[in-house]
């Protein structure tokens, strides 16, 4: 069920997919810049094949599903605290907007890293 997080004059967030990806009310898919959050149980990155393929990469899959749920929930709570602002920086290979999301001047990615629910993207 989509959670509608909206604030006057800010970015309208329709849905928080996981700890580093959201969908705006206009359908735009947004990947939080410079962080990696734990995967959720339905992530293809956590299949045996993907884990093997990505094992030596700079950003191997982080397949702690319980922590992934906590990360998603923390991002949802963070974004509901006020008007969400966005600073876009391009797109990734999946067509998602890469951006910094902030609430009341506080960066969502920095917040998640500071509480151990995301790590810096290498």
TrEMBL record:
Listed InterPro entries: SNase_OB-fold_sf, Staphylococal_nuclease_OB-fold
Pfam families: SNase
PROSITE patterns, alphabetized: TNASE_3
Domain TNase-like: 13-122
Segment forming the signal sequence: none
UniProt name for this protein: TNase-like domain-containing protein
Lineage, top ranks: Bacteria, Pseudomonadati, Pseudomonadota, Alphaproteobacteria, Sphingomonadales
């Amino acid at each position: 069920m989509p959670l509608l997080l909206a604030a006057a004059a800010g970015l309208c967030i329709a849905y928080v997919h996981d700890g580093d990806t959201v969908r705006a009310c206009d359908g735009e898919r947004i990947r939080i810049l410079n962080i990696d959050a734990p995967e959720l149980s339905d992530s293809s990155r956590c299949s045996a094949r993907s884990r093997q393929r990505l094992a030596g990469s700079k950003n191997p899959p982080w397949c702690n599903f319980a922590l992934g749920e906590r990360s998603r929930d923390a991002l949802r709570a963070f974004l509901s605290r006020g008007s969400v602002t966005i600073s876009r920086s391009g797109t990734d290979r999946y067509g998602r907007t890469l951006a910094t999301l902030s609430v009341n001047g506080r960066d969502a990615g920095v917040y998640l890293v500071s509480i151990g629910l995301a790590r810096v993207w290498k």
